[in-house]
Specification:
Layout (H helix, E strand, L loop, with lengths): L3 E6 L3 H10 L2 H4 L1 E7 L2 H11 L3 E5 L7 H11 L4 E6 L4 H9 L4 E4 L4 H23 L1 H25 L7 H7 L9 E8 L11 H14 L6 E7 L2 E7 L6 H18 L4 E5 L9 H13 L1 H4 L4 E3 H4 L11 H13 L2 H18 L3 H21 L4 H4 L16 H41 L7 H8 L3 H12 L3 H19 L4 H7 L5 H12 L3 H9 L1
Parallel strand pairs: 1-2, 1-3, 3-4, 4-5, 9-10
Antiparallel strand pairs: 6-8, 6-9, 7-8
Helix pairs in contact: 3-4, 14-15, 15-18, 16-18
């Protein structure tokens, strides 16, 4: 098993050497990966080494142990922090506990005590590692939840809350076979139309569900059944759309069988066949409408909506789900996803064979959604369409749904490009503003990520990620490099004292300035000046 990584920070070299030498790191399941002689150096090392445990003294130069712990609690929230001190001071202990420090040890430190602390920490870290890695438990829990997840999937499918392009992936995730082809939804109501919901309780619905599962017979068809609202829903995969009439006859048979065997009255509404499982929402709507006709039919039977409303088909409307799909594809999707969505929309126009006026309204709803999307992103409508665009565009301007689809696709891809460019430009501008602020404030010893983010009105977490991605450096490394460059220039071009140069580059402690300078350039400030002027 991989050992846990430890970072040690103490300004006394003897203590660091003693702890390093006397502890059986490997035997305890740890590896000492780094040492620091002050809090500032420890903070920088932690960014590189990402330790699991940090052992730190309280009193150190440049940055004390409590401040180091406060910073680490933000940048490494999962790390275990151990503080040791020679000061038997309750206030130190209180502050340490308040920062989430795991252990507080008094100096002098002996190896047995430190070993016991490490053993306790290893047990905590082992538990956390086991929880993360216990995939078998998660898998078992997932499998136990599969029946519920499948029921939820079918319900969301009938409600239209799953996009058609997501159906195959979701079905595969739940180990379900939901192939494309002719599908239809049938809703079975137990009891008459005049009965209350209380009379159609869960036990009665469960009896109907079990009855239908046991007695349903339709060669070539595949059926999924579930409780859906106050009915039993059947999702039926047909050999072809024409098999819906054979389905209607089978449901008629089951209604009669339930009446004779169980004395149970069933009424079944059957929706129009649709082109795939992603369109079952429309078929379910038709099944609900068919059930409403029971008042006119006056008996328990199977009612196919196509017999009562032969002109009813997939409704041509651009709803909220379509609008969310368009926004998601344009903002977050690939070019292929945008093209697939537009093809789906134009296919709907092609297959529904609605009147010209209804097709025109559908087209205008799409254009309006695109205009709203452009304006929400801060783009001008003219950039998306053309300088001469006035909004006066008609479905009749196109010779075919395919031509309309090409026009819509071009506009969607243009909008995707504009929004993507805006996101890139926004990130670049933010980083440039940050650099300008740093350049104007590097001499301020209180310059920090927090003060910069307060100026830019950004969260520190988002800014740190953005700045590192755009510049390749952390905020601390960038500021240090800038300050060292300015210090080197002043040492070379001026005769100012080192402590003044330290103040002008944001360091209140000349000793720490000299320490950082030597670490950066390899020589002290005085030797650097002498070498430059030799």
């Amino acid at each position: 098993m991989e050992p846990y990584r430890v970072l040690l920070a103490d300004d006394e070299e003897e203590i660091r050497a003693g702890i390093s030498r006397k502890i059986d790191w490997a035997g305890l399941g740890f590896a000492l990966v780094g040492e620091a002689e002050n809090g500032a150096e420890a903070l920088e090392l932690s960014e590189q080494l990402r330790p699991d445990v940090v052992l730190t003294d309280i009193k150190m130069p440049f940055m004390d142990g409590l401040e180091l712990c406060r910073r680490l609690r933000q940048s490494l929230p999962a790390a275990k922090l151990v503080v040791f001190s020679g000061f038997d001071d309750f206030e130190y202990a209180r502050q340490a506990v308040g920062m989430g420090v795991s252990e507080y040890i008094m100096k002098p430190i002996n190896a047995p005590e430190m070993g016991e602390v490490l053993i306790r920490l290893r047990e905590q870290l082992d538990r956390q590692r086991m929880e993360r890695r216990d995939m078998e438990t998660l898998r078992r829990r997932y499998e136990e939840s599969l029946p519920v997840l499948r029921e939820l999937f079918y319900t969301r499918l009938l409600d239209g809350r799953i996009r058609p392009d997501q159906v195959a992936d979701r079905a595969a995730r739940y180990e379900l076979d939901m192939p494309e082809g002719a599908w239809t939804a049938a809703l079975t109501r137990v009891g008459g139309a005049g009965e209350s919901e209380a009379q159609r309780d869960e036990l009665l619905l469960l009896s109907a569900l079990a009855f239908l599962d046991e007695h349903f017979q339709l060669p070539g068809a595949c059926v999924r059944s579930l409780l859906y609202n106050d009915a039993v829903a059947l999702l039926v995969r047909l050999e072809g759309p024409e098999q819906v009439y054979a389905l209607t006859e089978e449901m008629e048979r089951l209604c009669a069988l339930a009446r004779s065997i169980l004395g149970m009255s069933l009424t079944v509404g059957i929706g129009q066949p649709c082109a795939g499982p992603g369109e079952l929402r429309q078929s379910a709507d038709g099944a609900r409408s068919a059930l409403d006709y029971q008042v006119l039919v006056g008996e328990e039977r199977a009612i196919y909506i196509g017999d009562l409303e032969p002109d009813r088909s997939v409704r041509l409307s651009f709803g909220e789900e379509d609008q969310r799909a368009l926004e998601s594809a344009v903002k977050l999707g690939s070019r292929e996803q945008v093209e697939a969505l537009v093809e789906q929309l134009t296919h709907r126009v092609r297959e529904t064979r609605r009147s010209l006026s209804q097709c025109h309204l559908f087209f205008l709803e799409i254009v309006t959604a695109m205009i709203r999307l452009a304006r929400s992103g801060g783009d001008e409508v003219e950039e998306q369409f053309s300088r001469s665009f006035t909004g006066m565009v008609s479905f009749s301007d196109f010779h075919s749904p395919e031509e309309l689809g090409r026009w819509l696709c071009a506009r969607c891809l243009k909008l995707q490009e504009l929004l993507g460019r805006q996101r890139t430009d926004s990130a670049w501008k933010t980083v440039e503003q940050a650099k300008a602020f740093i350049a104007g404030n590097y001499a301020d010893c209180d310059l920090s990520v927090e003060s910069l983010c307060a100026h830019l009105h950004l969260s520190a977490t988002y800014f740190s990620t953005l700045f590192k991605r755009e510049t390749g450096q952390s905020f601390t490394a960038y500021v240090t490099e800038l300050r060292m460059g300015q210090a080197a220039r002043m040492l070379q071009d001026t005769d100012e004292k080192t402590y003044l140069i330290a103040e002008k580059t944001g360091y209140t402690d000349p000793n720490y300035f000299s320490y950082v300078f030597k670490r950066h350039f390899g020589v002290t400030p005085s030797k650097y000046r002498a070498g430059q002027r030799a």
